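haha ok so turns out i had the wrong file open the whole time. this is the CORRECT one, sorry everyone. sequence first:
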Amino acid sequence: MNRRDLLLTGAGFIATTAALPSLAQAAPTGKIVTLDQGLRGYYAAPKSRQPAPAIMVLMEAFGLNDNIKSVCDRLAQAGYAALAPDFYHGQVFAYQDIQLAIAKLKTLNDSVVMAEFGKGLDFLKSQKAVLQKGVGVTGFCMGGRYTFLANSVHADRVKAAVSFYGGGIAAQADVAGRQMLLDKVTKMQAPIMFMYGSEDSFIMAEEHERITAAMSKAKKRYAVNVFPGAGHGFMSDRRESYNQPAAEEAWAMTLAFFDRHLARKKAS
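then structure:
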């Protein structure tokens, strides 16, 4: 047993990559739904007669694109209902248009985004196919930061969180001029897992340290995983920064984390 396997076993769960679909193998199963007036999202539900736990999927700075939709589809294939709110209200940017995406990101207001997140929670609550025992939340890039924030603002409704390379959580000089979120830690209730790449040029190791210091000081449950050789955006096979070994391991760990904390019933 290697060191990573030992850490996973000691944490109370074992992640396996067998039979986990790649992004390319996840057939589209979701649909666009209305969450509120002027707010829509992408919703995918598993093919099961039993209610399933739900996970909110928070988009990257590039919008509600095919990558984020595919994450919802993969979660549905794994037995979860998944919803990705469209915080950009229809705007989507190509991965090479990073400056346009950052410019759009700068127009967002954290309070408005968290209110829209709440509308997503209300939608899930209205679905008979969703198990009403709290939801999980995961997000990437910009969505990783909002995953962290949602775990505080909606602490009474979030049961587990996985934040992928969430920039701006504890950056002293954030590229988008966003404020640190470390003052939100004390209100968190759900366990949270952080995923980073060691070669991420947007999120330095010093930011990891500030986050872990704040979480430990507040005595919150968390885990930090850093994947050697992986850069920012390593989870998306639609990006040049895609790192397949890191992505597959991180996905397996994410499913195991949600399986544990959302108590998903596995098919017999």
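The two ends are 27 Å apart (CA to CA).
again sry for the mixup
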